[in-house]
Write a structure and sequence with these properties.
There is one protein chain. By secondary structure, the chain is α+β, with helices and mostly antiparallel strands. Helix content is 45%, strand content 18%. The chain is built from 3 helices and 4 strands. The protein has a 4-stranded antiparallel beta sheet. Strand 2 (63-68) and strand 3 (76-81) form a beta hairpin. The protein is rod-shaped.
């Protein structure tokens, strides 16, 4: 009976240690920043944590439009027919192209209006 008790105690201790190790590694994974392609640690939020972009360039009633934040109403509409753009660009604009700064937005608008 003592041999079984010792084996059960050791097995329980090993299981507890494995569970603690697993739980600790899961906490570390959540807290540790993920590496970026260049090998440095990234502090950017994950997509679940990300806030909406300051601006979104997308199609609105067949035209190129800028939306602020997560607004459903366009902030500005351009006289650029999305149907004249390549299919790839139409797909991007249907999903929305985020821009975090006015400079990024200006570059996107320049790309699509020139």
């Amino acid at each position: 009976m003592t041999r079984k008790w010792i084996c059960l105690t050791i097995a329980s201790a090993l299981l507890a240690a494995a569970l603690l190790f697993w739980a600790g590694s899961m906490l570390f994974r959540q807290a540790a920043p993920s590496p970026s392609p260049d090998g440095t640690a990234s502090t950017a939020p994950t997509p679940d944590e990300a806030s909406p972009a300051a601006y979104t360039l997308r199609e609105y009633e067949g035209k190129l439009a800028v939306f602020r934040g997560d607004s459903r109403a366009p902030y500005q509409i351009y006289d650029v027919s999305v149907s004249t753009l390549p299919e790839y660009d139409r797909t991007l604009l249907k999903e929305g192209i985020p821009a975090d700064t006015p400079a990024q937005l200006d570059r996107l608008i320049e790309d699509y209006t020139s």
